Sequence to fold (306 residues):
Amino acid sequence: MNAWNFIDPKLGGECPALYGPVARVLAVSWLALLATGCGEQRLTADELVTTSRSVTVDVGRAMALPPAGTFPVTSVTQKAYENAVSQTVSLATRGRTPGENAIHVAFFTAADVPEAAGVEGNLLKEPGIDDFAIGKEMEERLPGVAMAPSAVFVQNGYGPFGYAVGRGTGGEACLYAWQRLAGKDSLFRPKSGMISVRLRVCDPAATEASLLRLAYDYAFNAKLKRPGWNPIGDAPAPAPELGQSGAPIYPQAHQSSFGEAPQRPQAVRPRPERRRSAVPAEPQAPDPISTKPLEGYPTVPPPPAP
Fold:
């Protein structure tokens, strides 16, 4: 009989269980389930979900770069938001102060985002530039370092910026600089986008002047490909006398290179004053005119009285 039989304990005999076609279908299904459970499953890249939106990009894709000959770029970490792209451009760090040297830069679109540090959903909020916000940033990126904000007005090729200096572990020089670029639009609702820059650097062989050069000479290496996005503005036209005869251009004063102490002008010694006598000499009175006639000359009579 073409069937699978089994012994029914109640009936005490063999009973037909499953006939050939049904048995074969169930056997094939069972083998398929067994292969699926025990076989190897292939994963795709889309199935991996990470807890951070940060990705590492090539150093050549850094949105901001330090001046040539200063700190080399070691890595670039990038985050993408609905309204911005931010990067942490890590620089070579050789000091003992906690933290790493880096340029923190963010390119914002023209979206209206309130001015406050942090992330709301997938929107990056604009970092503040008030004293409280800057002080909080310095505590996080320069822990334990007493930073003194400078009251001097400074400006690089992109516009005004602020900075603070301090002494880290072992007395090494530390600098923290911040800059906000939003073109000529409103401070609260920029139409052409905005750029936020933070510079944190400490180095045992540098001086305050050489570290400040980083804030003066850093450069942007990218932009957002969006219509109207131009927080920096157009480059100024060259001077009209450039290349013309009769308009000489003199070299600027020597600027100290990175790690070199700034040259100070030598003190000019004053000329020694002439010694003067303690008691000034009294002016001598002129010799009185003598009325005695000179010998050998005739005597001239006086004029007649009126």
About this structure: The first helix runs from residue 20 to 38.
